[in-house]
């Protein structure tokens, strides 16, 4: 099946021709498959934010191209808005973009720009609110009366209401407490499971990425360092660590056990998988 | 796009122009402006242009950066030039068409006006390019200090200015971010008539104001936590002190002003 998004040899240079010239993205190429949950990880300054702003045409590539269902998104610059409805981008700290008088109106901003009206608009808004766990009685409140976590849900609903084919989330859980994080990620997982839509999750946290995604893209210094399933990526744990990136806590423990002579595969990233391996080892009779 | 605004930008450096006391620079710019408006005739403008060129030379600020600063003003400069060229009354005209009349004096006036605005803008930019905003406000506060006698809140004004300057880049960055976020939701800032365009700004302005108020609130709390209570009895980390070079520079400025005034009298 054809990938839904293809990034081909993408390069983006800021301030070209000035002394401050700097490439934030250099020769990046990768595919995003329909319906997959892709995680993007990398340090601050690795080009994550610049990269994702290309996916919905907020930034124009200096070189290379982005294909959405095989079609270059910049083929018709006048229709770039269509791309933004198909690739929904939720920025970091999206609660700071809320502006309407009521939660309902704010969520309706995106779909109304799409040209939805009447019942269709109402349905889109209510459906999106339900997806992120906003109650009906909260819809008529001012978004500024809500708590930080709830504001973020409203902002997320504002993008979901456009019913994008690809949802791009930039650090959706940054600044939330652990319970809030898990709650929000659960909403996102449910959305992925029930709607089967493609999701791209950008995160700092290896644990968050490991627990949720099907495939990982690791960025370093404006380049793609590695890509693959979590198992494939964490099998190269040493490489990740030497690149100054983190590995999930469980992988770290498994790597240390391996180093101390326990015969296990260090590419595990969930408690259950590590438990299974250790139990298997015990049954095998090689006591530890 | 928004990042291209260079107004009031500071280029760090260590030239003599950077090291001058900010008060000296403010006074020199004041003298420069007075001289510029007293200048009359080619000789006067030539003196001003040479002065500016010399200052640019010692400041190590590239001429290109200064010229770039003129860009946002191209329209105003052109407008002033054209107005002066076509509407200067004279007894003899080179060319006439309805109310548009071009005379030798008109062309001369237009040229002087354009040169005057350019020199004015470049001169003041040279000061902001070589003085950090903090030093500039320090200098201004110190110069305005005598006004405290008549209960002008000089310290408060200076503090407000320092804070405003400090937050310009932050707000520009914030605006960029909010614009991107709203564009991602399909906001359209470029099409439609003037009313639609104004309405399209609401989704940017509301979050921007809210965040500005939030920042102001946080800043006020942070300042109070550090026992800020206004200018009364407050000491400074960097105490401004005139050096020899400041006296030399001020004397030089006075000489040039005098020269221009004399040239004006002589009618050169």
Automatic annotation (TrEMBL), chain A:
<dbReference type="InterPro" id="IPR027417">
    <property type="entry name" value="P-loop_NTPase"/>
</dbReference>
<dbReference type="GO" id="GO:0042626">
    <property type="term" value="F:ATPase-coupled transmembrane transporter activity"/>
</dbReference>
<keyword id="KW-1278">Translocase</keyword>
<keyword id="KW-0547">Nucleotide-binding</keyword>
<dbReference type="InterPro" id="IPR017871">
    <property type="entry name" value="ABC_transporter-like_CS"/>
</dbReference>
<keyword id="KW-0472">Membrane</keyword>
<keyword id="KW-0813">Transport</keyword>
<dbReference type="GO" id="GO:0043190">
    <property type="term" value="C:ATP-binding cassette (ABC) transporter complex"/>
</dbReference>
<keyword id="KW-0067">ATP-binding</keyword>
<dbReference type="InterPro" id="IPR015856">
    <property type="entry name" value="ABC_transpr_CbiO/EcfA_su"/>
</dbReference>
<feature type="domain" description="ABC transporter">
    <location>
        <begin position="5"/>
        <end position="246"/>
    </location>
</feature>
<dbReference type="GO" id="GO:0005524">
    <property type="term" value="F:ATP binding"/>
</dbReference>
<dbReference type="InterPro" id="IPR030946">
    <property type="entry name" value="EcfA2"/>
</dbReference>
<dbReference type="InterPro" id="IPR050095">
    <property type="entry name" value="ECF_ABC_transporter_ATP-bd"/>
</dbReference>
<keyword id="KW-1003">Cell membrane</keyword>
<dbReference type="GO" id="GO:0016887">
    <property type="term" value="F:ATP hydrolysis activity"/>
</dbReference>
<dbReference type="Pfam" id="PF00005">
    <property type="entry name" value="ABC_tran"/>
</dbReference>
<dbReference type="InterPro" id="IPR003593">
    <property type="entry name" value="AAA+_ATPase"/>
</dbReference>
<comment type="similarity">
    <text>Belongs to the ABC transporter superfamily. Energy-coupling factor EcfA family.</text>
</comment>
<protein>
    <recommendedName>
        <fullName>Energy-coupling factor transporter ATP-binding protein EcfA2</fullName>
        <ecNumber>7.-.-.-</ecNumber>
    </recommendedName>
</protein>
<comment type="function">
    <text>ATP-binding (A) component of a common energy-coupling factor (ECF) ABC-transporter complex.</text>
</comment>
<comment type="subunit">
    <text>Forms a stable energy-coupling factor (ECF) transporter complex composed of 2 membrane-embedded substrate-binding proteins (S component), 2 ATP-binding proteins (A component) and 2 transmembrane proteins (T component).</text>
</comment>
TrEMBL record, chain B:
<dbReference type="InterPro" id="IPR024919">
    <property type="entry name" value="EcfT"/>
</dbReference>
<protein>
    <recommendedName>
        <fullName>Energy-coupling factor transporter transmembrane protein EcfT</fullName>
    </recommendedName>
</protein>
<dbReference type="InterPro" id="IPR003339">
    <property type="entry name" value="ABC/ECF_trnsptr_transmembrane"/>
</dbReference>
<feature type="transmembrane region" description="Helical">
    <location>
        <begin position="150"/>
        <end position="168"/>
    </location>
</feature>
<keyword id="KW-0472">Membrane</keyword>
<comment type="function">
    <text>Transmembrane (T) component of an energy-coupling factor (ECF) ABC-transporter complex. Unlike classic ABC transporters this ECF transporter provides the energy necessary to transport a number of different substrates.</text>
</comment>
<comment type="similarity">
    <text>Belongs to the energy-coupling factor EcfT family.</text>
</comment>
<keyword id="KW-1003">Cell membrane</keyword>
<keyword id="KW-0812">Transmembrane</keyword>
<dbReference type="Pfam" id="PF02361">
    <property type="entry name" value="CbiQ"/>
</dbReference>
<keyword id="KW-1133">Transmembrane helix</keyword>
<feature type="transmembrane region" description="Helical">
    <location>
        <begin position="26"/>
        <end position="50"/>
    </location>
</feature>
<dbReference type="GO" id="GO:0022857">
    <property type="term" value="F:transmembrane transporter activity"/>
</dbReference>
<feature type="transmembrane region" description="Helical">
    <location>
        <begin position="110"/>
        <end position="130"/>
    </location>
</feature>
<comment type="subunit">
    <text>Forms a stable energy-coupling factor (ECF) transporter complex composed of 2 membrane-embedded substrate-binding proteins (S component), 2 ATP-binding proteins (A component) and 2 transmembrane proteins (T component).</text>
</comment>
<feature type="transmembrane region" description="Helical">
    <location>
        <begin position="247"/>
        <end position="266"/>
    </location>
</feature>
<keyword id="KW-0813">Transport</keyword>
<feature type="transmembrane region" description="Helical">
    <location>
        <begin position="70"/>
        <end position="89"/>
    </location>
</feature>
<dbReference type="GO" id="GO:0005886">
    <property type="term" value="C:plasma membrane"/>
</dbReference>
<dbReference type="InterPro" id="IPR051611">
    <property type="entry name" value="ECF_transporter_component"/>
</dbReference>
């Amino acid at each position: 099946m054809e990938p839904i998004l293809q990034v081909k040899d993408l390069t983006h240079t800021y301030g070209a021709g000035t002394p401050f010239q700097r490439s934030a993205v250099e020769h990046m190429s990768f595919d995003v498959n329909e319906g997959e949950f892709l995680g993007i990880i990398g340090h601050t300054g690795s080009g994550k934010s610049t990269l994702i702003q290309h996916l919905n045409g907020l930034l124009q590539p200096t070189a290379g191209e982005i294909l959405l269902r095989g079609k270059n998104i910049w083929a018709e610059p006048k229709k770039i808005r269509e791309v933004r409805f198909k690739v929904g981008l939720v920025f970091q700290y999206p609660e700071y973009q809320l502006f309407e008088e009521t939660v309902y109106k704010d969520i309706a901003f995106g779909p109304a720009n799409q040209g939805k009206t009447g019942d269709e608009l109402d349905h889109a808004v209510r459906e999106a609110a339900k997806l992120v766990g906003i109650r009906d009685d909260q819809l008529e409140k001012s978004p500024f009366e809500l708590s930080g976590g709830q504001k973020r849900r409203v902002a997320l609903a504002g993008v979901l209401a456009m019913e994008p084919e690809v949802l791009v989330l930039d650090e959706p859980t940054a600044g939330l407490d652990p319970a809030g994080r898990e709650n929000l990620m659960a909403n996102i997982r449910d959305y992925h499971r029930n709607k089967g839509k493609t999701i791209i999750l950008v995160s700092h946290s290896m644990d968050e990425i490991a627990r949720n995604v099907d495939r990982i893209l690791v960025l370093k210094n404006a380049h793609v360092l590695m890509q693959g399933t979590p198992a494939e990526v964490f099998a190269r744990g040493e490489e990740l660590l030497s690149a100054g990136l983190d590995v999930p806590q469980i992988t770290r423990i498994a790597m240390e056990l391996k180093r101390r002579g326990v015969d296990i595969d260090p590419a595990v990233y969930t408690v259950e998988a590590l438990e299974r391996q250790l139990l298997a080892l015990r049954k095998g009779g090689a006591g530890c | 796009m928004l990042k291209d605004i260079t107004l009031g930008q500071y280029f760090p450096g260590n030239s003599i122009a950077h090291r001058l006391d900010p008060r000296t620079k403010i006074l020199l710019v004041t003298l420069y402006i007075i001289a510029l408006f007293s200048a009359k005739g080619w000789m006067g403008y030539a003196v001003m242009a040479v002065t500016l060129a010399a200052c640019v030379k010692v400041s190590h600020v590239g001429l290109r950066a200064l010229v770039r600063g003129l860009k946002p003003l191209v329209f105003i400069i052109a407008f002033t030039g054209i107005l002066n060229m076509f509407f200067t009354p004279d007894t003899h005209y080179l060319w006439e068409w309805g109310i548009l009349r071009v005379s030798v004096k008109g062309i001369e006036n237009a040229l002087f006006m354009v040169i005057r605005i350019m020199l004015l803008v470049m001169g003041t930019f040279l000061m902001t390019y070589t003085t950090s905003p903090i030093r500039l406000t320090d200098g201004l506060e110190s110069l305005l200090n005598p006004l405290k006698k008549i209960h002008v809140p000089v310290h408060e004004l200076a503090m407000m200015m320092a804070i405003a300057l400090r937050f310009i880049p932050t707000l520009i960055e914030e605006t960029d971010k909010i614009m991107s976020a709203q564009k991602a939701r399909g906001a359209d800032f470029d099409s439609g008539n003037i009313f639609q365009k104004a309405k399209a700004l609401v989704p940017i302005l509301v979050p921007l104001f809210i965040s500005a108020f939030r920042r102001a609130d946080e800043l006020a709390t942070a300042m109070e936590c550090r026992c800020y209570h206004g200018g009364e009895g407050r000491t400074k980390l960097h105490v401004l002190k005139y050096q020899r070079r400041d006296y030399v520079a001020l004397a030089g400025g006075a000489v040039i002003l005098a020269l221009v005034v004399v040239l004006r009298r002589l009618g050169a």
